[in-house]
Amino acid sequence: MTTQKSTLDLVSWNVNGLRACRSKTFDRFIEERGPDFLCLQEVKLNPSAIPEEDFGYAFTHYHLADKNGYSGTAVFSREMPLSVSEDFPGGKHAGEGRVITCEFDGFFLVNVYVPNSKGDLSRLSYRYDSWDPDLKNYLIDLGKDKPVVLCGDLNVAHREIDLANPKSNRRNAGFTDEEREGLSNLLAEGFLDSFRHLYPDRENAYSWWSYRSGARARNVGWRIDYFIVSEDLATSVREAYILPEWEGSDHCPVGLELSLA
User: Fold this and answer.
1) What is the Cα Rg of the chain in Å?
2) Which of 36, 87, 132, 153 is catalytic?
3) Catalytic residue among 57, 113, 138, 226
């Protein structure tokens, strides 16, 4: 890496509309925390609404959906990447602005907003049969060249400990057997859920709460935002954290500290 810092601080945040989040806490978050890498999901921007500000970052990149105000991702970095790409090779799953990959000296950083299976599970087969396997294979291929850091809203709570009410949500979007299996299949290929790597038994640790019934105040939530890393980065993981005190979205930021040693 070109930076002289001994550790890197990476944050991922589904902002559920960047303009709306900026009217609340986003700019203050940048000012107070200013991570080295910031990955956003669900920016919901039109091309004409991309902020002119660089927020103090050397590199900013937005990948928007073809449909205005839908989905979309962004990456901010304090150093310039060696390369940048969007979506998967061959243009698979293009059009919804869901994947940005930035190559740095020591790793690939992949920012992803995984499709929601929808309340009626109408997109579950797409997730299970196509999206999740394609993401897994893409990360495996990247990992042949250098370690991978995957972050973003994966739209799945992996284990029962990762949501407040697992029994009543068994066949709900985000906690179906198929979605959970998709993440298990990825982890089985040499990747780690950094938070559970450090805190395998920590309960009540969530990153998303419904706007209904005061769920956030009662901490009735789901952990669906992740930092997944190649197993060869396991000894480099210094901290994995969740920042529920930062509001502005129905998700909160999640983070990772990596050693450069």
Assistant:
1) 17
2) 153
3) 113
**Distance between CA atoms of 195 and 236, rounded to whole angstroms?**
13
Q: Is residue 240 part of a domain?
A: yes
- Give the domain extent around 91: 7-259
Is the separation of the CB atoms in 6 and 238 below 8 Å? no
Residue 1 counted as domain residue:
no
- How many Å apart are CA 9 and CA 3, to the nearest integer? 12
- pLDDT tens-digit series, residues 126-173: 999 999 999 999 999 999 999 999 999 999 999 999 999 999 999 999
| pTM to 2 decimal places | 0.96
The reply to whether 250 falls in a domain is yes
- Taking phi over 0 as left and psi of -120 to 50 as alpha, with beta for the rest, 174 belongs to left
197: part of which helix (H) or strand (E)? helix 194-198
HSE-CB at 158 with a 13 A cutoff on CA atoms is 20
Helix (H, G, I), strand (E, B) or coil at 207: coil
Examine the residue annotation and report whether 57 is marked as an active-site residue of this protein.
Answer: no
Domain assignment present for residue 106? The answer is: yes
Contact yes or no for 172/214 (Cβ under 8 A): no
Question: How far lies 44's CA from each of 7, 38, 62, 199, in Å?
Answer: 31, 16, 11, 32
Q: How many domains does the chain have?
A: 1
Q: Residue 153 catalytic?
A: yes
